[in-house]
Design goal:
There is one protein chain. It is built from ten helices and five strands, in the order βαβαβαβαβαααααα. It has 214 residues and is of the alpha/beta class. The chain folds into two domains: 124 residues, 3-Layer(aba) Sandwich (Rossmann fold), CATH 3.40.50; 75 residues, Arc Repressor Mutant, subunit A.
């Protein structure tokens, strides 16, 4: 959990959805909704003004479409995390979210607690994607990761699932220091700076495959 309140901007073209999200988040002591908006162009202005920790973004936005909003948020406030909240959950949309560097992807049909957990996770710097995507990733042979050892690929896959070093150590029955050692090697081999960039590299390596279907 972050040590301060997570400042959130909500963006959805349906006022009723916004009202429901605000009501849900209002009950959470560690989350503060600083703005809610139904228009994409207005969203970018609010992001510049508030510099929120997280934007919960619908893809169907008037004024400025959702994917364009995502890119504009990156330019307006690079430190803001973007969580896609959508009704579209097929492989194409998840792949686009990864390629355009969204920090997470949840479905409107998911339980509310799952959306709450995703907000907290992306605020902490984790990538959050559906269980279906994780299952698919575990079935595929690694691509673009040839420099890594089998153990390093195993640890990287768990990082991409959002597990902490402690959770990875417990899962693999190793010491935390061992996990940290492997992560340092992974970062160096992949040319990345942190676990979020490493997880994104892993996700992109798999979801960037031309053969991905919906």
């Amino acid at each position: 959990m972050v040590s301060h309140r997570i400042r959130v901007v909500l963006a959805d073209d349906h006022p009723l959805v916004l009202e429901g999200l605000q009501a849900m988040l209002r009950a959470e002591k560690d989350i503060e909704v600083v703005a809610a908006v139904t228009d994409g162009t207005e969203l970018i202005s609010l992001v510049r003004h508030h510099r929120p920790n997280v934007v919960v973004l619908d893809l169907q936005m008037p004024g400025l479409p959702g994917w364009d909003c995502l890119e504009a948020i990156r330019r307006a406030s690079p430190g803001t995390r973007v969580l896609i909240l959508t009704a579209f959950g097929d492989g194409e949309f998840i792949q686009m979210a990864i390629e355009r560097e969204a920090d997470g992807f949840v479905l409107k049909t998911d339980p509310p607690q799952q959306t709450l957990a995703a907000i907290r996770q992306v605020a902490q710097g984790h990538l959050v994607f559906p269980q279906a995507a994780r299952r698919w990733l575990r079935r595929q042979p690694p691509e673009g990761l040839e420099a890594l050892t089998e153990r390093e690929r195993e640890i990287l896959a768990l990082v991409a699932e959002g597990l902490t070093n402690t959770q990875i150590a417990r899962r693999l029955n190793v010491q935390i220091a061992t996990v940290k050692f492997h992560l340092q090697n992974i970062f160096q081999k992949l040319g990345v700076r942190n676990r979020t960039e490493a997880a994104r590299f892993y996700l992109t390596a798999h979801w960037g495959r031309p053969s991905i279907g919906k």
